[in-house]
TrEMBL record:
<keyword id="KW-0472">Membrane</keyword>
<keyword id="KW-0813">Transport</keyword>
<dbReference type="GO" id="GO:0015297">
    <property type="term" value="F:antiporter activity"/>
</dbReference>
<protein>
    <recommendedName>
        <fullName>Mitochondrial 2-oxoglutarate/malate carrier protein</fullName>
    </recommendedName>
</protein>
<keyword id="KW-1133">Transmembrane helix</keyword>
<dbReference type="GO" id="GO:0016020">
    <property type="term" value="C:membrane"/>
</dbReference>
<keyword id="KW-0812">Transmembrane</keyword>
<dbReference type="Pfam" id="PF00153">
    <property type="entry name" value="Mito_carr"/>
</dbReference>
<dbReference type="InterPro" id="IPR023395">
    <property type="entry name" value="MCP_dom_sf"/>
</dbReference>
<keyword id="KW-0050">Antiport</keyword>
<dbReference type="InterPro" id="IPR050391">
    <property type="entry name" value="Mito_Metabolite_Transporter"/>
</dbReference>
<comment type="function">
    <text>Catalyzes the transport of 2-oxoglutarate (alpha-oxoglutarate) across the inner mitochondrial membrane in an electroneutral exchange for malate. Can also exchange 2-oxoglutarate for other dicarboxylic acids such as malonate, succinate, maleate and oxaloacetate, although with lower affinity. Contributes to several metabolic processes, including the malate-aspartate shuttle, the oxoglutarate/isocitrate shuttle, in gluconeogenesis from lactate, and in nitrogen metabolism. Maintains mitochondrial fusion and fission events, and the organization and morphology of cristae.</text>
</comment>
<dbReference type="GO" id="GO:0015139">
    <property type="term" value="F:alpha-ketoglutarate transmembrane transporter activity"/>
</dbReference>
<comment type="similarity">
    <text>Belongs to the mitochondrial carrier (TC 2.A.29) family.</text>
</comment>
<feature type="repeat" description="Solcar">
    <location>
        <begin position="211"/>
        <end position="302"/>
    </location>
</feature>
<feature type="repeat" description="Solcar">
    <location>
        <begin position="17"/>
        <end position="102"/>
    </location>
</feature>
<dbReference type="InterPro" id="IPR018108">
    <property type="entry name" value="MCP_transmembrane"/>
</dbReference>
């Protein structure tokens, strides 16, 4: 092992390429799961006001959107979803990959589990802060179709939404709900790292799986289930708070208004309403995780073959 310690680390892609591939992978996955994200947001907002019984199930919500808004309606907010990935996922995966490689020993020994979790939480919180403006625009755009025509904001695209929010409500509104968004990112990354690692190892130890895409898919879906259960209460607070129209004196990054939202949801809709929209959230999170990493691995493989090994 002494000789191995002097062995240089294998060549890897530049930091800029790591960030680029992370963002492209997330954006590619979003194209496929955007309808599920729309349904999830609509379900989480369905407990407000006179529309408390608007959607009975996730499938009822999807059918209602298709009936009232057409097929294009399920892709409402796609531009915001893509921008969110271009900011949040680019930052998250880029930072995670760079820190992971930096903390990997020269002999190829990866960082321990605790360090992986810490790296993931750091990357997730940083990415969430960068991606919050796109998140606010996404929540508002996906919520627009459920409002009466006279109350709809009518954003034409994500950039129109960002410009109008800044002009009409102030630039700080773009970071409304920043704390729960970052808290969700920390929970998601910690849960994903732990559950994915454990479930993958359990599948491999069973003797029925090999270390291939099918194993990664199954482990990701199990991880998605754990992550969904852990992160949904934070996510619903983030969703409700992000779409609210509040006067300037109520805008705050402190926990008071966020806890107020949480308490009102539990008091008015019940404790288990914190997991409202569980099916589309899980259906989105699992495939999005799988697709993101499949795309990411394929792009890295292509880069290694044509740029590092040529």
């Amino acid at each position: 092992m002494a000789a191995a310690s002097g062995t240089p680390k294998p060549k890897t892609s530049p930091k800029s390429v790591k960030f680029l591939f992370g963002g492209l992978a997330g954006m590619g996955a979003t194209v496929f799961v955007q309808p599920l994200d729309l349904v999830k947001n609509r379900m989480q907002l369905a407990g407000q006001g006179s529309k408390a019984r608007e959607y009975k199930t996730s499938f009822h919500a999807l059918a209602s959107i298709l009936r009232n808004e057409g097929f294009g309606g399920v892709y409402t907010g796609l531009s915001a979803g893509l921008l969110r990935q271009a900011t949040y996922t680019t930052t998250r995966l880029g930072i995670y990959t760079v820190l992971f490689e930096r903390m990997t020993k020269a002999d190829g020994t990866p960082p321990n589990f605790f360090m992986k979790a810490l790296i993931g939480m750091t990357a997730g919180a940083t990415g969430a802060f960068v991606g919050t403006p796109a998140e606010v625009a996404l929540i508002r755009m996906t919520a627009d179709g459920r409002l009466p025509p006279e109350q709809r904001r009518g954003y034409t695209n994500v950039f129109n939404a960002l410009i109008r929010i800044t002009r009409e409500e102030g630039i700080t509104t773009l970071w409304r709900g920043c704390i729960p968004t970052m808290a969700r990112a920390v929970v998601v990354n910690a849960a994903q790292l732990a559950s994915y690692s454990q479930s993958k190892q359990a599948l491999l130890d069973s003797g029925y799986f090999n270390d291939n895409i099918f194993c990664h898919f199954c482990a990701s879906m199990i991880s998605g289930l754990v992550t969904t259960a852990a992160s949904m209460p934070v996510d619903i607070v983030k969703t409700r708070y992000g779409q609210m129209d509040l006067p300037d004196d109520q805008l705050s990054w402190l926990c008071g208004p966020l806890l107020d939202v949480l308490v009102k949801v539990i008091r008015n809709e019940g404790f288990f309403s914190l997991w409202k929209g569980f099916t589309p959230y899980y259906a989105r999170l699992g495939p999005h995780t799988v697709l993101t990493f499949i795309f990411l691995e394929q792009m890295n493989k292509f880069y290694r073959i044509y740029f590092l090994e040529s």
